[in-house]
Amino acid sequence: MKISLNWLKDYVRLDASVDEITRAITFLGLEVEQVISTGAPKLENVFVGEVLTRDKHPNADKLTLCTVDVGLAHGVKTIVCGAQNHKVGDRVPVALPGAVLPGNFAIKQSKIRGQLSDGMMCSAKELGVAADAAGLLILTDRPALGTPINQVLPPGDTVFDIEVTPNRPDCLCHLGVARELAAWFKQELVYPEIKFHGEIDQASGAARPDLLSAVRVEAPEDCPLYTAHIVSGVKIGPSPAWMQERLSAAGLRPINNVVDVTNYVMLEYGQPLHAFDARQIGGGQIVVRRAVDGEKLVTLDGKERLLSSRMLVIADTQQPLVVAGIMGGERSGVSADTTDIVLEAALFRRQSVRWTSKHLGLTSDSSYRFERGVDPHSTLEAACRALDLLVTTAGGRIVGPICKVGGDKPWQREIAVTPAYVRARVGFDIADAEIKTALESLDLTIVRKEDLPEGGTSWTVAIPSWRDDLDRPIDLVEEVLRLYGTDRIPPAVVQSPGLLADDDPVVRYHRRATDYLVGHDFHECVNYTLRPAKELAAWVPPTAATELALANPFVEDQSHLRPTLIAGLLESLKLNRSRGVAVARLFETGRIFVERDGQNFECVAVAFIVAEEAERRWLKREPADFYGVKHHVEALAAAAGIELARQPQIAGGPGHAGWQTGHSAASGGLQHGGWLAQCGLLDLALVKSLGLEGKIYGGIFAILPEKLAAAGAHRRFAPFGLFPAALRDLALVVDAHTPAEEVRKQLAKTARSAVGQAFAVESVTVFDVYQGQGLPEGKKSLAFGLVFRSAERTLTDDEVNAVFAQIQANIEKTDGWTVRK
Q: What gap in Å lies between CA 246 and CA 789, rounded to an integer?
């Protein structure tokens, strides 16, 4: 929102410097993004001159040779000029040798195509007062010859480019910002003088029902107030220079006197208006209604819009004319031959305007204000102000009938607050008088005072209609503090308990997982928690995607909570490969959202992927496989206090979405254990559909935060054994379909039973798998290494052999298992 300082001074006396005003706006809570100075800079050696003669340049077709009188002090100069819009007798700016124009353009005496030129006649662009110019700046006011140009040109302006927060729509206009500055600088706010107050002089303003006979509102819930005034006999032309300057300073392009008035009042009051050409209103009636599905309207930007029944339009008896609150149609606006206009001033429900704007992809200065909220009690005042300006700038007269449908809802909002409450919330002592002054300077009037039984006073504060954001006592505390000045808050020691990051189990777990994966040459990624709907289709069933959908997403590609981190890692891998970055190992830590039986679980998760090496090396590392990623998942689970070896085994089964059937495995459950793990080869078709080549393995471990807190206790150190271990190898023949982990667990249990309390079975590991010649069909051989150790002594061969023999004897009793000789 661009705010003109010259314009502000119409409403409030501002003698402060630009820096002080900028500081005040910032402390009031409106961020100043930029301060822009307009108008001509200080120009030396540039004066008013008059063209005495204008002849064709003897050596150039597009140049003229002129003599210019620059006053008694400078005499008559000969100047070569390339512009074509001047004639003898015109007064123009003349830059003499020694002048330096904007852009560090130095003027000096020079020869142009063989003719001496003693300076340059200037355009508005060359003087720095316009963005473009078709020719010389003709000084129509005919100032005295030799007058320094800075005394002739407009003095310029200071424009504040302000970022207004969504809760302060009252500051989307000059009056709103002036109200804030008047409160800050303790000045009186002066409202514009309005002569028309909604009553027509019957002697001079006869009724013209032929121009507009009626207004009908068929959707009052979306349009609680609609007014229409008729101005007959207008003459379309340029608006006054002062109005054009102010509109330009505020970032709007002047168009004509009627359109400029509607824009001017919008920037002044914050109330959008629209002017219809009365001839274009079919049937002489305005109908505020919902559009018909499939109805079309070509808007002022020249684009055809397809409307739906949820969209509000302003129509005549035949067709829609305007998308309500957003933009007019091509047929609704005024043109050069317009003589009668109908001025619309209305209120539109902000939700309706916001929805329509979003679905049409159409925004405007009008929709920007209606979406945030327009003061419902300034609509008629803004209309009267616009009618005054229309009659002044475009002529004509206000005629009947005045059409008004609906009305202002009675506004009465009061908040009870005590000075003691304000002091308690701001945290320092502030006098009752200062609190009262701060409130009343913002037109927050104290309408009642009551003495409290426990002492002190309670104030009832009336809230004006333009401050719809104030509805609680704490809101008034914020207003007091804004006006008191946050820079005046006395320093104090803040005492509050803090939570160290190291105390949070989620932080500790993520740090351990990150340290592990970085140590294994993985690169960390960070992706958005919100993902597109089409991505979820590859990972979860439709019912789960529905549960994870946002009710009102901001953008289409961030419409769902993510059920996995793997999808984002694949996207990161694709981006890096497209940029020629040869990374193959990526990981991410973060939250995922898993749906199970209609219930959503928010989990702490770590995921990684391992792709085939894209970089050419003289010595390639071993390619990724299922067992490598399984090892990483087990390490991530161990970092969370979950030993997968002691859980229901991680094994293959029916393929999960996103994973390749027969080459992936899963373990755990959120409803019971509170965690889950998956690893293996990612679905080949999915990987190919993303434009990635080769096999990609991955793994993910997710756990509920409360389970992580319970399992995340510090692990105790176990001392290393001081005595040598005893090793024995054992090969077992089992059914080919029996998982090795199942056999390993049973063997370890059998070994511990045989050992008893004599010493310990330190580990049981698989080191070989064999199928083929020498074994019965449907069988396989699993070779295990068993490690025995005692913490008190060195084991003897006899005692170890006795235990080992007992283990073999017990194994032979297991159905389907035999010891391979």
A: 91
Amino acid at 238: P
d(CA 214, CA 620): 83
598's tokens:
């209609």
Dihedral over Cα of 75, 76, 79, 81: its sign: positive
End-to-end CA distance of the chain: 88
Residue pLDDT, tens place only, 492-526: 887 766 655 566 888 889 999 999 999 999 999 99
Sheet holding 64-69, edge to edge: 76-81, 64-69, 46-56, 91-95, 120-121
The answer to whether the bond into 401 is cis (omega within 30° of 0) is yes
Distance (Å, whole) CA 479 – CA 485:
10
pTM for the structure as a whole: 0.66
In 3D space, the residue among 516, 533, 536, 567 whose CA is nearest the CA of residue 682 turns out to be: 567
CA distance 499 to 434: 37
Report residue 782 CA to chain centroid gap: 59
Total Cβ atoms within 10 A of residue 333? 21
Across-strand partners of 67?
53, 78
* CA dist., res. 662 & res. 664, Å (int): 6
Q: Report in angstroms the alpha-carbon separations of 18 from 15, 22, 768.
A: 9, 6, 82
Q: Which amino acid is at 474?
A: I
- Pairing mode of beta strands 285-290, 214-217: parallel
Is residue 32 within 8 A of residue 25, CB to CB? The reply is yes
CB 183 within 8 A of CB 441: yes
The alpha-carbon radius of gyration of the chain (Å, integer) is: 41
- With vertex at residue 250, the alpha carbon angle to CA 249 and CA 255, rounded to the nearest 5 degrees, is 85
Contact of 693 with 578, CB cutoff 8 Å: no
- Cα separation, 288 vs 344, in Å, equals 11
Asked whether 6 and 157 are in contact (CB, 8 A), the reply is yes
Question: Which among 601, 575, 603, 610 has a CA at the least distance from the CA of 589?
Answer: 603
Q: What are the phi and psi torsion angles at 412 (to 5°)?
A: -150, 105
Distances (CA, A) of 129 to 40, 42, 51, 137: 5, 11, 22, 10
Q: Which two tokens stand for residue 330?
A: 């091509």
**62 touches 15 (CB < 8 A):** no
Bridge-based pairing state of the strands 100-101 and 91-95: unpaired
CA angle 68, 73, 76 (to 5 degrees): 20
> Which candidate, 583, 639, 580, 633, places its Cα nearest to that of 611?
583
**Rounded to an integer, what distance in angstroms lies between the CA atom of residue 405 and that of residue 217?**
7
Whether the CB-CB separation of 558 and 530 falls below 8 Å is answered with yes
Other beta carbons within 10 Å of 82: 14
Q: For 451, what's the count of Cα atoms within 13 Å in the CB-facing half-sphere?
A: 2
* DSSP collapsed to 3 states, 70-95: CCCCCCEEEEEECCCCCCCCCEEEEE
Q: Please give the pLDDT value at position 654.
A: 44
C-alpha 685/C-alpha 659 separation (Å) is 10
What is the distance, to the nearest Å, from the Cα of residue 620 to the centroid of all Cα atoms in its chain? 45
The pLDDT tens digits for 282-314 are 999 999 999 999 999 999 999 999 999 999 999
Residue-wise pLDDT for 736-763, tens only, equals 988 888 899 899 999 999 998 889 999 9
Q: In terms of residues, how long is the chain?
A: 821
User: Is 620 in contact with 613 (CB distance < 8 Å)?
Assistant: yes
Give the whole-angstrom CA distance, residue 177 versus residue 194: 20
Alpha helices per DSSP H over 471-527: 473-484, 505-519
Q: Which of 556, 560, 585 is nearest to 572 (CA)?
A: 585
